[in-house]
Design goal:
Elements: H1 14-17, H2 20-23, E1 47-51, E2 54-61, H3 69-79, E3 84-92, E4 97-105, E5 108-109, E6 113-114, H4 117-133, H5 152-157, H6 161-172
Parallel strand pairs: 2-3
Antiparallel strand pairs: 1-2, 3-4, 4-5, 4-6
Length: about 170
């Protein structure tokens, strides 16, 4: 680990490389016609970290205003399993000044609470300590009667299932 930028600093230089949003952000809008209604991929503004099969997602917002309904629903549902905690943090991304956070834990949402950067760091440290205490989740191999039949379009992707069985067992489990 080096300096204040942590282990994984953003290596993009806008002066040298141009606007990151235009040059590197995946244009997820092209997938809008793949899902029903107004559902589409969301962009994770800050990041996600995993320890022992648990994930902490950090979503950055400029202001502590209501989280968009789809994002709120996703965080509520995904946090219900206990495998994901989502922290929505409101503040200035340029200065990293934090004014509030909202946590999604166990299918519940705290709502916006006043905070500063040290409060968020404390929450992250407590999450990491707890995740390190928990044993990693180990998936057992799927039994033959637990496998589901691949649809025709997936069969094209996996022409020789037996050769790739170990890669897809978790995906194919019900």
């Amino acid at each position: 680990m080096s300096g204040d930028n942590g282990y994984n600093p953003l290596r993009w230089d806008c002066e040298r490389d141009g606007c990151y949003n235009k040059e590197c952000r995946p244009k997820i809008e092209i997938f809008a016609d793949c899902f029903p209604g107004r559902i589409n991929f969301g962009d994770v503004d800050a990041g996600i970290v995993e320890i022992n099969s648990r994930a902490l997602l950090l979503e950055w917002k400029s202001n502590p205003i209501p989280i968009p309904a789809g994002q709120h629903s996703a965080y509520m549902n995904l946090s219900r399993t206990g495998l994901l905690v989502a922290l929505a943090v409101a503040g200035n991304a340029k200065t990293m000044e934090v004014v509030a956070y909202s946590a999604y834990v166990g299918g519940n949402c705290t709502g916006w609470r006043n905070a500063d950067q040290e409060k968020i760091k404390g929450l992250c440290r407590r999450w990491a300590a707890r995740a390190q205490e928990l044993p990693p989740i180990k998936l057992r191999p799927a039994l033959p009667d637990e496998r589901i039949t691949l649809r025709d379009d997936l069969k094209e992707w996996v022409a020789d299932y037996a050769a790739h069985q170990h890669e897809f067992d978790a995906l194919l489990r019900q």
